[in-house]
Amino acid sequence: MQMPAQQVNGIPAVESQQKRRRDTTIDPEEVARFDQLGAQWWDFNGPMQALHKFNPVRVAYLRELLGRHFLSEVQPRDWRSETALQGLTILDIGCGAGILAEPLARLGARMTAIDPARRNIEVARDHAIKAGLAIDYRCTSAEALVAEGAIFDVVLAMEVIEHVSDVGKFLRQASVMVRPGGMLVAATLNRTLKSFAFAIVGAEYVLRWVPPGTHKWSQFVTPLELTKALRGAGLHIKDETGVVYDPIAAKWRLSHDMDVNYIMAAYRPS
Questions:
Q1: Cα Rg for the chain, rounded, in angstroms?
Q2: What CATH number does the domain containing 238 carry?
């Protein structure tokens, strides 16, 4: 005798689960992978060491980009100062344990940082408390914030686009939360043979900068694809730049080379 299907609010459980997956761009496998890192997020020599090395260049980029973009608004700001982002409301989507959110908060930004991995948020909150930083960490999704009507001066999608299940839908949701005159900044990996060689073979299997399996080359996004998605969401491209690793200086730097890592910024017209 066949047992009746379980139901959730009158909907068969399997159908309900499928609907939840359609309603979100979160990839459960990706969430589980990063959730396992726990406190290792803040180990500078651990599995996220590449992100720690990458962080200074993206913080410097955001500091100047956002400082200059909002320079002419009511509150004058100097992008070179220690309070370059003072008062700006910034959303960091896929924040992990707060590696990017913390330095931006120190620059004066009012940070909201979200991640669907509960353990990530727990570690992020604990680390921020110990650092004396007030950051609004939430275990939630971009779609949930959109449903709440959340709006920000800046929305960040840094190293997260290549981990979502539907890039176009994700960017549409993220863009909705950018206020008129505000900005969206995305950092991701280009889908080229060079990126396969460097970001997957080199970084994951040779240098062991990140755990093997962290990235899927098929989910990398080309600058043209990202440009079309952002424009389709009503945003105008403001800047784009590549980011390359300098083995001599042992650090990352901005570059015209966008074949592997790159950052793109777009704004919503006032």
A1: 19
A2: 3.40.50.150
